[in-house]
Amino acid sequence: MTCSIAPGKIILFGEHFVVKGAPAIGFAVSKHAKVCVEKGDFQVVSEQAGRIEQGSVLYRAVTRLIASASSIFGCSKDVRILIDSEIPIGSGMGSSAALSVALAHAYLTHCGASFDKELVNKLAYEAEKEVHSKPSGIDNTLATYGGFLKYKSGVFEKLEIRLGDEVDFLVVNTKMKRQTGRIVEKVLKLYEKYPEILVNVYTAASVLVEKALDSLKGKDYESIGRLMLLNHGLLWTIGVSHEVNDLIVHKLVGKGCYGAKLSGAGRGGIVVGLVSKSLSTRIEEELRGEGLEVFRVTPDYEGVRSV
Ligand code: PMV
């Protein structure tokens, strides 16, 4: 049996503004999807959801990926696929992309094929098109290469950023599901209605991302936190926050995080906070005590790999 893991992701700065050409920054996180492949009658089994039905989106994405990969290398499609993921589904943490990336890597390894990460990323991106109507490609790219990425108008740039061991990110899952496409549409409508106002908000978001790059490179946690809050404010301005997101941001900052913001499409989803490691366990326990789903992550600098 061959197994691979690939990380989920968090957008740290610039979501939504990126849709109209502003830059954004995302990073791969220490929550992974694991996929194992072994010889056998074709089937897809998930540790969390059991045997995957033939008509489902996940099944279609998996079969599409296996068909493409097997046609390149002439490998057998008679494989049993076992999935085990610790990434929350539908919360903007790139669970489907991590799964596709881990699957491509595990299957190509199982085949004995000679391949590189570029191929893994490409195969996963094609599979992502079964899951999301217009994937930007950020999720599969981060799951493949790990680390921090800047992306702008479809161009990805790997960033030489390494944070120290002295900080953690706290992720609070609001468990409020939403459709990214709908929220994006509403934001674009708002822009159409008030272009002369919104253009300034988008410019602010672009400048903010450039400042954030400097702060991340310099490991200036106070500044990163302050910019996360500013970014949350801009996201609130374009209508993608929710009182639940705002409340969690206030809680995280009130308890000592450097900063916090919603991450991804918004209107629920996840909130991420940056926190000193000396405080993270206490804050995590307190929030869990208040009934919230919360976990700690650190950046995954490696991306997809065999395990
Ligand atoms: O929550 P997610 O990971 O689906 O993030 C959506 C990010 C947006 O900027 C809102 C949309 C996009 O395609 O970039």
Low-confidence stretches: none
Radius of gyration using CA atoms only: 19 Å
Helix/strand order: EEEEHEHHHEEEHHHHEEHEE
So how many helices? 9
What CATH calls the topology of the largest domain is Ribosomal Protein S5, domain 2
Q: What would the keywords be for this entry?
A:
307 residues, alpha+beta, Ribosomal Protein S5, domain 2, Alpha-Beta Plaits, four-stranded antiparallel beta sheet, 9 helices, binds (3R)-3-hydroxy-3-methyl-5-(phosphonooxy)pentanoic acid
Provide the fold topology.
Elements lengths: L1 E12 L10 E16 L3 E4 L3 E2 L5 H17 L5 E7 L9 H17 L5 H15 L6 H8 L2 E5 L2 E5 L7 E7 L6 H14 L1 H23 L3 H17 L5 H12 L4 E5 L6 E7 H13 L3 E5 L7 E2 L1
Parallel strand pairs: 3-5
Antiparallel strand pairs: 1-2, 1-12, 2-5, 2-6, 3-4, 6-7, 8-10, 8-11, 9-10
The structure holds (3R)-3-hydroxy-3-methyl-5-(phosphonooxy)pentanoic acid (PMV).
(3R)-3-hydroxy-3-methyl-5-(phosphonooxy)pentanoic acid binds next to helix 5.
Outline of the structure:
With 307 residues, this protein is α+β, with helices and mostly antiparallel strands. Helices cover 44% and strands 25% of the residues. The longest helix is centred in the last third of the chain and has 23 residues, at 195-217.
